[in-house]
Amino acid sequence: MVTNMPGSKLLGPISGLVGIPVYFVEHERDKVQKKTFTKWINQHLMKVRKHVNDLYEDLRDGHNLISLLEVLSGDTLPREKGRMRFHRLQNVQIALDYLKRRQVKLVNIRNDDITDGNPKLTLGLIWTIILHFQVSLVLLDCMFLVRFLQTRTWSSFSSPCHVNLCSQMAI
Prior knowledge:
It is a single chain. By secondary structure, the protein is an all-alpha fold. 60% of the residues lie in helices and 0% in strands. The protein contains seven helices and no strands.
């Protein structure tokens, strides 16, 4: 029988298994998210020759966070050059303020949470950035495609494939 860690809850039967600790499931999920988000960040940071090894550590001073936002947005953001806690907090705050100006909703994420390397809130922040910048780009591409297709006449689509695509999109 699996014992329960202090403060954790046990799940009920899952696929015939009883007593899988919630903390284990949450820990595995967090590990996967950390790895996935780190790869996503590095895909973008490679454009400015930067790299994140440890998501929770390497965002703490705010520099990589600011660089990520600059790459994603094309904007240039100010940053503090010092290494003291005040400078790190200020850099993270610059990033958070920028996101708020872009109407990105940040729920209960403060600069000290990221500066202190809080895993849950760091993952939450990166997920929010992914949703805003990556998913919104996909939606814009889809909207552009729909508008483009709406400007075409039916006669310009000669193949059955085009007609099928348009009917599936309800245009």
